[in-house]
Each structure stands twice: as C-alpha cells, then as structure tokens.
Design brief:
It is a single chain. This protein is mainly alpha-helical. Helix 8 packs antiparallel against helix 11 and helix 8 packs antiparallel against helix 13. The two termini are 34 Å apart.
C-alpha cells in the first residue's frame, strides 16, 4: 500500500508542476491572475489541463500495453512499437486523416491496423519458431517496417501544402493541439481498458506461465485474446490522439519491474501510474526548453534508448 500512496503523491506533485510550468512563466500567470483572469482560465483550463490529462492517459496506456505484451508473449523484448502496433495504428490513422479527417473514423482505422499488425507479428514469429523470443522481435520489426513503408506512401501522395506537414508532425508524437474533444474520445476508452487490465493482473500471472500451465489452472486462449485486444485498443487510441511515441511501452515496464517486482497484480497499475508520470514530465520538457515545441518521440528515444541499454547490460543474460 505504501508504494501506491507514494506514487499517487508523486502524481499529484507532478500534476501541479505541469499546470504551472510552460512557456508562460509563473510570474506571468500571477499577473494574469491579478489583471486578466479570463486569459488565466483559458491557459489553465483550455490548454494545460486537457494536455495534462491526455499525457497521463497516453503514458499509462502505452506502459500497460507493454506489460501485457511482454507477459502474454513471455518476451521482455517486445513492446507496442516493436510488435508493429504503433506503426500499424499510425498507418490506419494517417489514411483516415488523409481521406476522412474524422476523429472517430481515425480511431477505428488505428485500432484495425494496430490489431492487424500484432496478429501478423505473432503469426510470423510463431510460424518460424514459436519458442524463440528473437523471432517474435524480428517478426515485429518486419511488420513495423512494412507499415512504415505504407505510411511513407501516404505521405508521398498527401497534399504538400496542408496535409503533409500536419501528418509528419503528428507522426513524431505531439500533444501540441490537444483539446477537450480529444479528452472526450481518449478518456473513456483508455480509463475502462486500464481499469479492466489492472483488475485482471492475477490472471495475467497465470497466462504468462504459457498455454500448458494456464490450461491446468482452467484458463484458455480466449482470455489471452481479450488481453491482446484491450492492449491494442488502448495503444491504437493513444496513437490516434498523440501520434507514434516510442520507447514508453518498453522502458516503463522494465523500470517498474526492477523497482517493484514482477507480480502483474501490482505491476499493471503501478506501470500505469509511473508511465503517466513519465510522459507528463517528458511533455513538460517538450513544451518548455525551447521556443519551438520538441516532438515527444525524440525525447522518449533520447531517454529510453540509453536506459534500455543499461538494463540490457544488467539483465540481458536472463532474456536469452
């Protein structure tokens, strides 16, 4: 219980910090409070608060999806992006943005192609060698590369004046244009998905033992299918709203596992809170350190790649 209290206290602290930090300084916010309260309300409630909520939900969703995929496929090397889910969802979203420009249809397109990507990766890896962790990773890389190529084709045919710049910037991951409309789309899907997956952590422990052991405890493959569908759903919803943000789904599960242990009953909710805090802090850096906003995927890669390298040196022997 102490670890949850600590993480929730840290979440509250980072939330307050995220509300007051940004290109508009704290001193300027005080001036608005005294002289122009309407502008202050717009900055806090229309710009920073929805962005804060989306940053938390996207970070939590990508992190929990990473935990689910690593447990389901019994492979610590996989994540939503490595399995091609991010690229697949990105392709579906980009096509829908290009043709329809409707957020709901974009969400559906992202989910369909994200789910298709993870199924292709799993089928290809299993077909070659179902006991090899490396083959699943290679299958995910192949699937991701195919969808990346398809995204490039969409960018090639997109209107260079209007569609292409927005598609390219969106693909790099950004919360720059987040509004309450995005929160209305994202919050119900991700919140329900995160709650269900957190409550089913003990079943994930059983499924992570493998099909034969899981069948002994009375669990079947359909339950595993439900886990994959929910993990893909919250990932694709996040991609549809915030673009492709790499490394969160791989890095956060490993950090939380190192600190809090491997029991999925607690690992899933802890990864949700920790992942949300991680992306909130990353977004603070993205919108504060320079005059032009830095895409999130650049920052998560700069942080995630070295840390995964360190973890790989310490724990890599157990992954073979």
């Amino acid at each position: 219980m102490k670890k949850y209290i600590f993480l929730l206290f840290l979440l509250a602290l980072v939330s307050v910090f995220s509300i007051v930090v940004g290109r508009i300084s704290l001193e300027e916010l005080r001036n608005y409070y005294t002289n122009d309260f309407d502008t202050l309300q717009t900055i806090i409630f229309d710009l920073r608060l929805p962005r804060l909520i989306v940053a938390f939900l996207v970070g939590a969703s990508l992190s929990v999806a990473g935990v689910i995929f690593q447990a389901m496929f019994q492979n610590p090397l996989v994540s939503p992006n490595i399995l091609g889910v991010g690229s697949g969802a990105g392709f579906g979203a980009v096509v829908c943005i290009l043709i329809f420009s409707n957020p709901f249809i974009t969400q559906i397109g992202a989910f369909i192609f994200g789910f298709l990507a993870v199924m292709i990766s799993y089928a290809l890896g299993t077909l070659v060698n179902k006991n090899s962790k490396l083959m699943l990773v290679l299958a995910g890389i192949i699937t991701g590369a195919i969808f990346e190529a398809l995204i490039s084709i969409v960018k090639y045919v997109a209107d260079t004046e209007e569609k292409l710049p927005s598609i390219v910037y969106w693909l790099m991951g950004s919360l720059n244009a987040i509004s309450w409309d995005d929160v209305i789309i994202l919050a119900p899907i991700c919140t329900i998905g995160l709650v269900i997956l957190s409550l089913m952590g003990w079943k994930l422990n059983i499924l992570s033992l493998g099909n034969e052991q899981a069948s002994i405890f009375g669990e079947n493959k359909f339950l595993g299918f439900i886990f994959v569908v929910l993990a893909t759903l919250i990932t694709s919803t996040s991609v549809a709203i915030a673009g492709i943000i790499g490394w969160v789904g791989l890095l956060v599960p490993h950090i939380t596992r190192l600190i809090f242990g491997s029991d999925n009953t607690s690992l899933v909710p802890i990864s949700a809170i920790f992942g949300g805090i991680f992306l909130m802090l990353t977004d603070n850096v993205a919108r504060s350190v320079s005059s032009a906003e830095i895409p999130l995927s650049i920052l998560t890669a700069l942080v995630g790649a070295p840390l995964i390298g360190v973890i790989m040196v310490k724990k890599g022997k157990k992954w073979s």
